[in-house]
Amino acid sequence: MPAPTPSPRQLLFICSQNRWRSLTAERLFDHHPHYQARSAGTEPGARVRVTAGHLGWADVVFVMEKKHTDILRQKFAAELAGKQIINLRIPDKFQFLDAVLQDLLRERLAEHLPSFTTGSSQ
C-alpha cells in the first residue's frame, strides 16, 4: 500500500495592498502539488484585507516587510500564537508578476519551502 500523500502546506502571503507582491507570490503556487497559497493585505484599501480567518487557515505566514509583521501582531496576537512568520524583505517597488519580483520570491522562498522548486510549474 503506498504511503499517504502529505496534505499541502497552506501558505499566506501578506503585503500592504495585496495587489503586487503578495498576489504575485500567491500566483507562483497555482497548481503546485505540495503547497496551497493565499494572499492578503494589511491596509484598509487592500484588494483582500487580512482577517483572522486567513491566519487560522495558514500553516506559515510570509510577510514582505517588517511593518507587516508589526501590524499583524498588533491586530491578531491570539491568531498568531504558534504561527511561524517569515519576513521575505521585499520592498514595495515591483509591479504584479514582475520577472525580477518572481525571481526574488523564488530565491527567498527556496530556503523555507523545500518542495517549492521541485514541484513548481514555473
UniProtKB/TrEMBL annotation:
- Report the protein name in the record: Protein tyrosine phosphatase
Query: Which SUPFAM superfamilies does the UniProt entry name for this protein?
Result: Phosphotyrosine protein phosphatases I
State the superkingdom: Bacteria
Q: Which SMART domains match?
A: LMWPc
The record places domain Phosphotyrosine protein phosphatase I at 9-115
Which lineage do the record's taxonomy fields give for this organism? Bacteria, Pseudomonadati, Bacteroidota, Cytophagia, Cytophagales
